[in-house]
Amino acid sequence: MPIFSRADTDRAGRLGPARLAASWDVTEGGKVYTFHLRDGVTFHDGAAFDAQDVIFSLDRARAPDSTNAQKELFTGIQSVEALDPLTVRVTLKGPDGGFPFKMAWGDAVMVDEASIAGIATKPVGTGPYRFGEWRQGDLIRLQAYDGYWGEKPAITDATFRFISDPTAAFAAIMAEDVDAFPNYPAVETLPQLEADPRFKVIVGTTEGETILAMNNTRAPLDDLRVRQAITHAVNRQDIIDGAMFGYGTPIGTHFAPHNPDYIDLTAQSAYDPEQAKTLLAEAGVSGLKLRLALPPPYARRGGEIIAAELAAVGIATEITNMEWAQWLETVHNGGDFDLTVISHVEPLDIGIYGRDGYYFHYAKPEFKALMAKLQETVEPEARSALLKDAQKMIADDAVNVYLFQLPKIGVANARIEGLWANAPMPANDLGAVRWSE
Predict the structure, then answer these.
(1) Roughly how many angstroms between the first and final C-alpha of the chain, as a whole number?
(2) What is the distance between the alpha carbons of residues 64 and 250, in angstroms, rounded to a whole number?
(3) Spatial separation of the C-alpha atoms in residues 372 and 51, rounded to whole Å
(4) Which of 149, 264, 360, 367 reaches 20 to 30 Å from 386, CA-CA?
(5) Is residue 158 classed as helix, strand or coil in its secondary structure?
(6) What residue ranges do the domains of the chain occupy?
(7) What is the mean pLDDT of the segment spanning 126-135?
(8) CA distance linking residue 9 with residue 57, whole number of Å
């Protein structure tokens, strides 16, 4: 698990000490972070967790040959050193007010060098549950770890099954083959489940921003007026009703509405098909045809609605339904697309708009400068102002069409307590889950 958590404090995503760092100090204006580790923490194989494990984990994540999916989180680290077995000093190349948040990502998980060789198939962690069994594509079993330093979980054995098909998910719930579905894919069946006393429906929020992403370097999408026209052609509420059966919160920028720094910019790109037509005419665009790539499942439902609304203002679309592997290779990694619908679920990920080569190809110099200033800013009020400026900049530039905040919709046996309603991070924490008496 990571040193920090975005969930342990209140499940609302505010940062607090997690299970491995009891506290931390910030010095030299946000350039040096000193972590005070918890005493008595062990890995699931019995090995003690200490400062050397932090050094190994962070050095491994930032190494030149690192395959960490979020390697960029660690590029600001200059050195990691142990002051004693339970104290680690991380010196950064420059001040970074967001460094504790970066260390709360799952990609910053702490590992032991002694068990790293088999980590891909037999992970060894420090949390309340240890790895039991993995059947690829079928299930993962976890078992409570007797040596866990904190409060022992009430559930001693847990099996996670992989059921992505909505019909199969509904059948599994109705047959009570599964006890809980924290991220339930068959939203259209919720009224039936809500009426069944065997179950309860749990609706909360996620960090996911669902967007109609646009390739900003491909003509005529490199014209602001064309992108603005597309934003005005799409009715957010139609997408929420049609693709999510009414669940979801409209957004006008790439930021979660529950975040205290969020600003509501939905009015700036309100549904206005006549304005869309005017903007297209001003850009000298007619007979436009764009490719629309749609991964499953919500994107395909919403994509059909988007295609119809774009057609109403004179933009034809060629829809390609893609499986996730194809979408990642063609769209995300290859940048070969015009439009696509996708939910970005990583928390506070507005910084992706400053990445060179990122798939929607924005990386405006002024935005990159804003992100650089945010990184070196430690004072909370100043950081808040910069985050609001960033939200406004990408909305002004109509980088993408911002649709809705992805809801967290769960279904569970009515006797289960302690499941997360909100998802401040992409995880299913069983620490507080229990069966009611």
Answers:
(1) 31
(2) 40
(3) 30
(4) 360
(5) strand
(6) 4-118, 206-407
(7) 95
(8) 24
C-beta neighbour count of 421 within 10 angstroms: 12
Element (H, E) at 308: helix 298-311
Token pair belonging to 81:
């050193």
Under CATH, which number does the domain 4-118 receive?
A: 3.90.76.10
Q: What is the pLDDT of residues 141-184, one digit of tens each?
A: 999 999 999 999 999 999 999 998 889 999 999 999 999 999 99
Mean pLDDT over each residue of the chain, to the nearest integer: 92
CA distance linking residue 433 with residue 129, whole number of Å: 13
Q: What is the CB neighbour count within 10 angstroms for residue 27?
A: 11
Token output for 256: 């979660």
Q: Which residue has the tokens 């395959």?
A: 67
Which helix (H) or strand (E) segment holds residue 114: the answer is: none
- CATH class belonging to 206-407: alpha beta
Q: What is the H or E stretch that residue 83 is in?
A: strand 77-84
Six-digit token string for 41: 């923490």
Confidence of residue 8 (pLDDT cuts 50, 70, 90): very low
- Strand ranges, E, within 282-387: 288-294, 315-321, 339-344
Q: How many residues does the structure list for the chain?
A: 437
Has this prediction a pTM greater than 0.85?
Answer: no
Cis peptide before 85 (omega within 30 of 0): no
Alpha-carbon distance of 244 to 256, in angstroms, equals 17
In the chain, count H helices and then E strands: 11, 18
Residue type, 414: A
Burial 107-134 (b: 16+ CB within 10 A, else e): bbbbbbeebeeeeeeeebbbbbbbbeee
From residue 344, give the alpha-carbon distance in Å to each of 60, 256, 332, 352, 395: 26, 11, 12, 10, 16
Report d(CA 294, CA 292) in Å as an integer: 6
Pull the structure tokens for residue 313. Answer: 């203002």
